[in-house]
C-alpha cells in the first residue's frame, strides 16, 4: 500500500489515505506510485511510472473535499484534455482510486513529470538566466498562452506554475482557469481574488480592493510579462518602470514593457497578440 498525504506535517498528524501501490487509469494504463513531489491547492503530486513503457511521470490526486474544489479539479482535467501544445503541460491519463480509509474514490490525473519549476530554477542559479535560454522559452510560452486563450483564461500565472522539462518551459496548474464558452459557469464568485497576489495584474488588484474590474485574457498577458521581466532582471516589475530598469536585449524591452502597462487597453489583448509582438521583435533584432 502507498500513503497519500499533503505534506510531511500532515503525515505526522495521521492525515493520509491508504491506496494500492499501482493505480489504473481509464483506457487500461497502470502506474506504479513513487515518492511525494509537492503539495497543490487541491491535493498532492507524486512520482509514478508507466508499468508497460517505464516512462517516468507525475500523478496528481484530488484529496480535498467540497463541491467547488472538485469542480476546479475536473475543469483542470478537461482543459488539459483539450490543449495540445509543447509549452502547455499535457494530460497523459486520468482515473480514480479507492482508498482503504475513505468512503469516496480519489480522482487523479497523470501528467508529464517536470524536472523543476521556474521559481526554483531561478532561485538556485548562481547567475541570471541568459538570453540564449530565455528568448526561445518566452516565444514558446506566449505561443502556449495563445493556444490556451482559445479555450480559457489561466488567471494564475506565476514562476511556480511554469514547469521546466529539460530545455522546455511549460504553463501548468489550470485550477483557476475560466473557460471562454458558455458551457462552464465561473464558480469563483465576483469577489474571489484570482491568482497569486504578488503576480496579479492591476485589474485583479483593483478587484481585490472592491472595484468592478474584470480579469480577462489581457490580465494573463500582464502576469506572463511580469514573469518574463523577473527572469530577465531578477526583479519584480513593481513601481514605475523605465528602460534603465531593463537588463535584457534592447529589442525585447518594448513588447514586454507594453504588456506591463497599467492601462489594460494599451497591452496586447490576448496571447496571440502578445505572441505576434514578441515574434515581430525577434525578426527586427
Structure keywords:
alpha+beta; single chain; protein serine/threonine kinase activity; Prot_kinase_dom; 285 residues; 2 domains; six-stranded antiparallel β-sheet; Transferase(Phosphotransferase), domain 1; globular; Phosphorylase Kinase, domain 1; ATP binding; 13 strands; kinase; three-stranded antiparallel β-sheet
Secondary structure tally: strands: 13
CA-based shape: globular
Q: Supply the CATH superfamily name of the largest domain.
A: Transferase(Phosphotransferase) domain 1
- Number of DSSP helical runs: 8
Mean pLDDT, all residues: 90
CATH architect. name of the largest domain = Orthogonal Bundle
CATH class division of the largest domain: Mainly Alpha
Order of helices and strands: EHEEEEEHEEEHHEEEEHHHH
Question: Strand order across the biggest sheet?
Answer: 3-4-5-6-8-7
Keywords: Kinase, Transferase
Protein name: Protein kinase
InterPro entries: Kinase-like_dom_sf (IPR011009), Prot_kinase_dom (IPR000719)
Organism: Sphingomonas ginsenosidivorax
